[in-house]
Amino acid sequence: MHLDQDIALRTIWDVEGKIAGTDNSDDWVVAGNHRDAWVYGAVDPNSGTAAMLETVHGLGDLLKQGWKPQRTIVICSWDAEEEGLIGSTEWAEQHERVLAHAVAYFNTDVGVAGPNFDAAAVPSLKQFVREVTKEVPSPKGGTVYDQWKADQAAPAPTRRSRRPTETTDSDVHIGTLGSGSDYTPFIQHLGVPSTDIGSEGPYGVYHSVFDNYNWFTKFADPTFVYEQQQARVFGLEILHMADADVLPYDYQLYGKEIVGYLEAAQKLATTKNLTLDFASALAAANRFAAAGTAIRATQSAPRRIPPPSTSPCATPKALSSTPRACPSAPGTNTPSTPRESSPATPPS
Prior knowledge:
Number of helices: 10
Oligomer: single chain
Distance between the termini: 93 Å
Strand content: 5-15%
Number of strands: 7
Helix content: 25-40%
Shape: globular
């Protein structure tokens, strides 16, 4: 066998679009997909690219209607993912300072290889993904969440997932992100909470010349209904995170999963006859879990604080000795301007 390797140096291009947020902060919501492929890449990555671009069209329509996001949205098309996540990694390193304030990164790679929705996320965003899928209709009927749950309940031979799942809660299982796509620099290098979504199915043409438009329209998504589904899920992830008054992080689940990781490691150590002391790590994890439970209760029932008044009459007496003009109450004839001969007395 004779192999010819192309080792020429080439310029790569990341393409980004930005919608400025109204809060003028660096709390960016970043979303992305890579566009380079080993060959034709109809599924990997172009099915994800198509869904992302449809999401962008939707955001454009909202802008035409006068909508503006609270937080800045940055949409990115990554280059050179297949050669080692180069495009996303270089971009993340270049924007490291501002990404220290980023609130989330949403990734899609293999957007549609079949009809079975799947996702992975950091623990703090797993419930967020579940809630988003409850809002999107599935081509099979019901919601994406309904079909996702039914698929996971199906017998193992019919269930396909490329991601490991956790069992620390009884809801739909969501994989925990590790590496393998463009979310990697965001979570591994910068600590930005991230998710990755796709619609799975039998995909025997992965990274081959047969991953082309013909295969996609015959086997993956002949009528492109799952492309529409993925665009909606991806778009709602972006919209909800950009406009949330309170960021939807779930540290209650995060704490439980960290405790679960340590308990699993402790069990494995026992089976390997290793003598390891997990006491300090478990104590810290349990403190984190307790704090997560407390903050989750606050998120579920936030205390309402009335907005501060801009009226000069609302200033406490102890903070002001300056005469102020105070409007009369409706239906009274009290002068609105205090007499110069008598200093105004603020209401107590």
